[in-house]
Fold these 2 entries.
Entry 1:
Amino acid sequence: MKLQNYVRGEWIEGSGPGDALVDPVTGEELARASTQGIDVAAALDFARSKGQDALGKLTYEQRAELLGKMAEVLAANRAEYFRISQLNSGATEADASFDVDGGVYTMKYYSKVGRSLGAGKRLKEGAQVPLSKTGVFAGQHFLMPVRGAAVFINAFNFPAWGFCEKAAAALLSGVPVVVKPATSTAWLTQKMVADIVDAGILPTGAISILCGSARELLDEVREEDVISFTGSAQNAGRIRSHANVLKRSVRVNSEADSINSTLLGPDAAPGSDVFNLFVREVIREMTLKAGQKCTAIRRVLVPRSNFAAVSEAIAAKLGEVKVGNPRNKEVKMGPVVNKTQQASCFEGLKKLKEECSVVFGGSESFQPIDADPAKSAFVQPTLLACEDGASAKYVHDVEVFGPASTLVAYDDLNDAVDIARRGLGSLVASVFSSDPAFLRDLVLGIGDLHGRVMVVDPSVGKEHTGHGNVMPSCLHGGPGRAGGGEELAGLRALLFYHRRFVVQGPPSLLEALSQESVDASLLYA
């Protein structure tokens, strides 16, 4: 099977052998993907013209209705998406739900909140600004949807959610999308797009997908386009520094590497509710999707006085996790996505072991349940320990994108803040404590270098949404190493797909332009 590309309103198979998509449990080839022979420039032009023209005629409310219909189609095909996730990503049912159900929920969320924007086609920001003594000349700020295409270059770990969360905000803004999923797991994204196309929901040109190499995609983007990238910091840098992207000042949103932290307060004694919630969250983040989440916990910061207790508690729980073929109902954690990713994890673990001891796991000869280690891509859940976080290097710099976390001891609040900040910018940090003063000072100490800080005290209990769970109503992104971008945050995500400009002229003209505009303050409601 070769995955087809959908461009210029038609399905086209790329030429040449393409790249293989495999089952990470058996090593079996499942499909191939190729963009060879696809006219990328023509595909973008078609989206900018046909797609943009059709979406631009619709109001925000009408586009929200389209999102709702898309969500219904995706929800109806949930079982097939789970099947593909298991085959192509080695996903357990919980893994597939996190990706697929999370994506559908996000689409539904934007459909619901998008209706609040009503019959407008653009946004008006603030009141008129007088620019003359007599009032015959004034200014009005507007936010206009970009007239280009939204180009998505997505990561392998969330082929469903990554597509849905970006497409929801772009299409609601009236901007056509061109999706380039990571080749290794492109099957699921391609199937979702195919189901949407078959349902005839979107106007022609509103959605396109390229399955395979991006090839000359960045050579063809223009100043009216936007790029949203999820992946490694290295690739993010390549996109930002691409000659054509620089020349045309193309807007880029990036979500990149993130050495996320969770932190246990010094007041949380072993056996306490907060202590147990903390251990539970570390286990979940290490094993869900085999740790292949940009928001997963990489550093576990604990008071030096409780270092041994935390080590023992996490190791004991990891020993209960059954790792292997997700077709086995007893299995709770599957493989990483392929042999390449497995090798990357092993290489990262080797570096971490140079300055850390191994508390649990770490064996390359690990025997998974119902799988051949020689053919599969499993990485044993691995907990490492670093008692000198101040002098460590790799702990704060190397992200093992798999089921691995490192315990790091801290001595006091200032030490904890310094260690957390060594991540040089993260998507998320979580803090577990019952001490209001400690929580306040810790949040203020790290907030500027984190996109999200989750705080759990006894009043929160098990009702929190999770360290690694991204909610569409809240900001997703992070500074520095994490990419410097922002996604989601409710309707505020639409800002990336709009351009701000001011019109200066007679108030009567400004009033006329405002008639099809929606108050931009709704984005912050």
Entry 2:
Amino acid sequence: MRIGKIGGIASLALMTLFWNAQAIAQQAAKRLEIVEARIADIQAAILAREITTSDVVKAYLARIKAYNGVCVNEPQGVLGPVTPLPGVKSINALMTLNLRPSARKQWGFDDRKARSMTDIVDNRPDMPDALEAAAELDRQFDATGKFTGPLHGVVMSIKDVLDTFDMRTTSGGDADYANDRPPADATLVKRLRAAGAIILAKANLGEYASGSRSSFGGTLCNPYDTMRDPGGSSGGSAASVSANLVTCAISEEGAPSIRMPSRLNNIIGLSGTQGLVSKDGLIGAGPLGDRNGPACRTVEDTAKIMDVIAGYDEADDLTVYSIGRVPKEGYAALATARDLKGVRIGVLREYMNRSLFTIADDESIAIVERAVEDMRKLGATIVDPGPEKDLMQACLVRYFPNNLNAAFIRQNADLFPAGVDQIDKLVDLYFDPSRVPNNFTMRDFGPAGDTVGESKYYFNRYLRKRGDANIKSLSELIAKSRFYQDEFSRNTRFRDTKSVLEDFNKATTLNIQTRNANRLAIQQSLMQCMQVAGIDAMVYPTGNIPPTLTKNLVEPDVNSRSHQAWTLLGQMGFPAITVPAGFTTKVYDRIRDPAAPGGTKLGEPTPARLPVGIDIVAMPFEEGMLFRIASAYEAATRHRSPPPNFGPLATK
């Protein structure tokens, strides 16, 4: 195609500007290799005046330009069917870039990456972009020689479920907001900016925090194998950190969506105690299901982010529980351990019983078993019931009938026939736990219980607070959105999000009391059992099943083991951190077979080097214990290894 003279000159000018920006970023990279750079590395280079915050932002932008492209074949566009592509050097992790139009064009990013689709001019002076914010930090540092705050120079992505006043916030939806920017930052975003962090991008996500595809941002890919899933709704946050497109990210989970993507992307992910980090500005957030947390490449950096975002926020009344529970010395001071002497760690064999699962689970379990031995060598006392045995069972049978009596009676109706005095029967079982039927384990608890109307209530509350002129309710959100059209199946990681939202919207009453009561009872029982066992923390695989091929069948649940990650303890409000524990050598993908039970079977093993994570869980508000164990284990093993196809950029 021939380019006209004026168009050719304009294209050449834009190309020249882009290559000039690339050259600046590469010069900065010579002074600091941004790949795997820690917060301490970045800040040391700034203090030594080897690099500026602007240089850091430009170095990450160069990597985003190189590695953040579309990673699937989508012949009908972002909303149509897609097919995965092998070996591509792009992951589509970041959806929106914090650049004004002129800067975005200079860097060669298309209009789809714009800060706003409703404010095309985007020239408000009170809304600086990432480059302008970095320049201001540089100006202040040049004038004072001091950092603005503890995260000065740290470049971050934010999962698009959290409000950013300068960038579109739609939870991955392609929705017709009158103003796609919310009126204010979420509380934790405000805290990050005040600490000197640069918010460079909104991370792509599973639409409305579900699955691994967005109607606006498209399909996400795993940097260790772009044919595979990056771990669900926070996949963009985790992949952007793993591929070194940002320093750290903020993720969010209702079940495993901080830790599952973190383990599949070989990084650290922390799901803090419910009530430790504010959920203000989170789209559709419920009171006890959702929580926000950091994802970084090192334990120490994760702790530094927590030092900024943790603590009481009047806008989220659940954070009142955090008062007096944030360590005065800070989390980062507790993330420097090199041994585990005096620490007692329980091995949660309930999640590691090979006899109950499949061969697809085996290698992850074996890797975590080696991690347990590494912790023993570091001086920890390991409380391990042994293979095919349970850590908590003997204790749970004592407290489950009492703390969850109604559920226990329903589950054991034969013990409580009509007319029997249930109270007398429960007292008898309390004094003789051996008579309690052994028909449940920790695997069987599952979520704390169903709720009625919760999602609709919190979507509508968020939308009314946002005050958009065009979308004021979940009904209007559904009606004024476009959703991707592809193969929908409960057996894949692609979800029919529209149908899910429509089901939410049918509710006309709100009832979360039963769920809240069950959650408290389960939490109390598990805390009591940890205390009886005398353990400070428990460990197990973050998830047993390696990442699934995109659009492929996921591994069916077996004995309450999900293909995603173990979710019970997190949903009960316990803090959990995932740390890289090693890599698989092979994987068993599920394939269709009409002759097999359920119409599917495990295929033959194929070579695959995919990340495995170990979960560490402690008592509520004992994040300091998590950071101690995680930092000592990380320092001794160094299992973090960047994805090989996303290395340093070639210099000119």
